[in-house]
Write a structure and sequence with these properties.
The chain is α/β, with parallel strands linked by helices. The chain has 23 helices and 27 strands. Helix 4 crosses helix 5. The longest helix has 25 residues. GO terms for molecular function: 6-phosphofructokinase activity; AMP binding; ATP binding; fructose-6-phosphate binding; identical protein binding; metal ion binding; monosaccharide binding.
């Protein structure tokens, strides 16, 4: 343990004293840029550096003057929930010229800014890298022209650059998600969900055009997230004759009693002859070939607007902090880098390697698990006639267990359709294991799950009942329906259920079948996975409510809100929700606190009320402490804050569990369910001997989870040691590393482990890590 302590790298060892950091946003705006700016400013000030806003992107850097302004802690307050970029962005032709960059260098030297944090797309980052390469030459020219002296050139001899990719298109290699992409998907899905209700009423076909320039990511993922009938993207130009195929597919769907069709087109979509495919061309095609009532909707700049999603705020906050750390650690020998997301981990990548891969363009298909999204979409959308499907003669049952979580239905739909594609007969179990032992099991077909992707809750029904007391009845139902494999979708109860069935294999041979569990719970408290289906939707509900609550305080100054979140003993929703909502304090079970901590928090808020930010936000996980209840904390704050601030409390309750699933949860549920069924198919083939399935090894009862950068199947029995069963949480939780970030951004002095930071990595083609992607 002592040895481990030696290798731990704490950011307190890094100092920004004497350093100046400039932060700018450039190119097209993207939701979440403000969260990144806020994180850079606050982290920079926290470590003792001076931080400057560079307004209007590179244009502001060239023009100087009031465009370059020192930032204060309070100047980034209330930015977190605002879309776009409050420091402005502009395309700058002048910076592309040598003279323009010379002017920009002069403006930076005047203020001693030698660290730049650039938030933008590949063009903005390429410009920043060129600026850095020319830096010493530019300084020499400035000296020769008498604009700066030798001492100034010496003091500013090195320029360090760190990039963050802010682009709704997600068209940058080396990162699973760029800042703004998730929010753009939220806008698209909100529109598609709304259109679906009107399209259904009139049996209409809708053709939607989404943004993305030459990248079809938004089109592809939104098609996955809403179950579109057809998608056209520039990366995969359709072959000749695609028009007939598309019309045939639309016609088949109508024959299956589907009352609407959705076709999604990326703005850069082309055919195999490089000819643009327009929405009007598709509309004319559908009307002339099928006679369907067809409408066109072009989403346009709606996709760029609106408030950033919880995911984008967390991503941007993490990246902003990581960018400052990268600047503090930079030397003349380290190349300009981009901070980005790989799986669930912040990584640093060489900037120009990423840009060169984007320039190669064809490699985009392999970036950020693009290929994985494409394959999943193909699996789910093209339904072959029954005669064309393989016949596996296996029966696979799907059920939901535990509390409902948004995205469960998307996972069930995906599992059913991929199972049918694999040749299995799929069975749906209603009401979890209670329905199982009561025989509520029936075959489910391709058409039965149409339109399930965007539905919240659990259509199959879900119960918390564990199987241990009903093993004989469950075994009997497995025999009656000849169930050969089981897919369980749920939270901590689902994990316990799979463990109980695995352990019952010794006494019941009927349970010797492949079994897989998908984590689906808003609490995100399942061992073996960093993320669960439903947690993202819940975070968005929390953040949306916190935004409204904070807004209500803008008229009534000096007010502190105490908000209680769900999660059982797991503090994920409170902690990560607090980071996304800009909370001042978060109380969680995993970080014990006492009356002295409460007193210190009240004092911290009292100091805050003396500044221009006269409101407070405190989040408390429902089971953080049995004595310091939400009521107790509310009364304590009310009493101690008398004359300084008043208090309000809000218990969010089950609104965190409801609502339509977020694009992330739809996509995550869809992809991991498809992967789980393919795993089940492999295990069925491996364990089929002498006319029956017999699977009794550890690796045939698994949980499919996301761990750091990869999706992994882990035997549930091996996860027992990683689990605190009394409190229903994993013994180690990755998000606890994010908890100090929330404190730092709220101006608390704290310790922050940066052992994972600082590793500059080569750019790879991207694997299948991206739950996000």
């Amino acid at each position: 343990m002592a040895k481990q302590q030696d290798t731990k790298k704490l950011f307190e060892d890094l100092s920004g004293a004497g350093k100046s950091i400039g932060v700018l946003t450039s190119g097209g705006d993207a939701q979440g840029m403000n969260a990144a700016v806020r994180a850079v400013v606050r982290m920079g000030i926290y470590v003792g550096a001076k931080v400057y806003f560079i307004h209007e992107g590179y244009q502001g850097m060239v023009d100087g003057g009031d465009n370059i302004e020192e930032a204060s802690w309070e100047s980034v307050s209330s930015m977190l929930q605002v879309g776009g970029t409050v420091i402005g962005s502009a395309r700058c032709k002048e910076f592309r010229s040598h003279e323009g960059r010379l002017k920009a260098a002069h403006q930076l030297v005047l203020r001693g800014i030698t660290n730049l944090c650039v938030i933008g797309g590949d063009g903005s980052l390429t410009g920043a890298n060129l600026f850095r390469e020319e830096w010493s030459g530019l300084l020499e020219e400035l000296v020769q022209q008498g604009l700066i002296d030798e001492e100034a050139a010496q003091n500013n001899s090195e320029l360090h650059i760190v990039g963050m990719v802010g682009s709704i298109d997600n068209d940058f290699c080396g990162t699973d998600m760029t800042i703004g992409t998730d929010s753009a998907l939220h806008r698209i899905i909100e529109v598609v969900d709304a259109i679906m209700t009107t399209a259904q009423s009139h049996q209409r076909t809708f053709v939607l055009e989404v943004m993305g320039r030459h990248c079809g990511y938004l089109a592809l993922v939104s098609a996955l997230a809403c179950g579109a009938d057809w998608v056209l993207i520039p990366e995969m130009p359709p072959e000749d004759g695609w028009e007939e195929h598309m019309c045939q597919k639309l016609s088949e769907n109508r024959a299956d009693k589907k009352r609407l069709n959705i076709i999604i087109v990326a703005e850069g979509a082309i055919d195999c002859h490089n000819k643009p495919i327009t929405t009007n061309h598709i509309k004319e095609l559908v009307v002339s070939c099928l006679g369907f009532d067809t409408r066109v909707t072009i989403l346009g700049h709606v996709q760029r607007g609106g408030t950033p999603s919880a995911f984008d705020r967390i991503l941007a906050s993490r990246m902003g902090v990581e960018a400052v750390l990268a600047l503090l650690e930079a030397s003349d020998s380290t190349p300009a880098c981009v901070v980005s997301l790989c799986g669930n981990q912040a990584v640093r990548l060489p900037l120009m390697e990423c840009v060169q891969m984007v320039s190669a363009y064809v490699s985009l298909i392999f970036c950020r698990s693009f290929e994985n999204n494409l394959n999943t979409y193909k699996l789910l959308s093209y339904h072959k006639a029954d005669s064309e499907l393989p016949n596996s003669s296996f029966n696979v049952a799907v059920l939901n267990v535990g509390a409902p979580a948004a995205g469960m239905n998307a996972a069930v739909r995906s599992a059913v359709r991929v199972g049918i594609k694999e040749g299995h007969k799929m069975f749906a179990v209603n009401d979890g294991f209670e329905g199982f032992y009561n025989g509520q099991i029936k075959e489910i077909t391709w058409g039965d799950v149409a339109g399930w992707t965007g539905q919240g809750g659990s259509i199959l029904g879900t119960k918390r009942t564990l199987p241990a007391k009903h093993l004989d009845k469950i075994a009997e139902q497995i025999r009656i329906h000849n169930i050969n494999a089981l897919l369980v979708i749920g939270g901590f109860e689902a994990f316990e259920c799979l463990l109980q069935l695995y352990e019952a294999r010794t006494s019941h041979e009927d349970f010797c079948i492949p079994m897989c569990m998908l984590p689906a719970t808003i609490s995100n408290n399942v061992p073996g996975t960093d993320l669960s289906i439903g947690a993202d939707t819940s975070l968005n509900a929390i953040v949306e409510t916190c935004d409204r609550i904070k807004q209500s305080a803008s008229g009534t100054k000096r007010r502190v809100f105490i908000i209680e979140t769900m999660g059982g003993y797991c503090g994920y929703l409170a902690s990560v929700g607090g980071l996304a909502a800009g909370a001042d304090t978060v109380y969680i079970y995993e970080e014990p606190f006492d009356i002295r901590d409460l007193q210190s928090n009240v004092e911290h808020l009292t100091e805050k009320m003396k500044t221009g930010i006269q409101r407070g936000l405190v989040l408390r996980n429902e089971n953080s402490n049995e004595n310091f209840t939400t009521d107790f904390i509310y009364q304590l704050y009310s009493e101690e804050g008398k004359g300084v601030f008043d208090c309000r409390k809000n218990v969010l309750g089950h609104m965190q569990q409801g609502g339509a699933p977020s694009p992330f949860d739809r996509n995550f549920g869809t992809k991991i369910a498809a992967k789980a069924i393919q795993w089940i198919s492999r295990k069925l083939k491996e364990s089929y001997k002498d006319g029956k399935v017999f699977a009794n090894t550890e690796d045939t009862a698994c949980l499919l989870g996301m761990r750091r950068r990869t999706m992994a199947f882990q035997p549930v029995v091996q996860l027992k040691d990683e689990t605190d069963f009394a409190h229903r949480i994993p013994k180690e939780q990755w998000w606890l590393k994010l908890h100090p970030l929330m404190k730092i951004l709220a101006k608390y002095k704290t310790s922050y482990d940066v052992s994972d930071s600082g590793q500059l990595e080569p750019v790879t083609r991207g694997g299948e890590s991206g739950a996000a992607g």
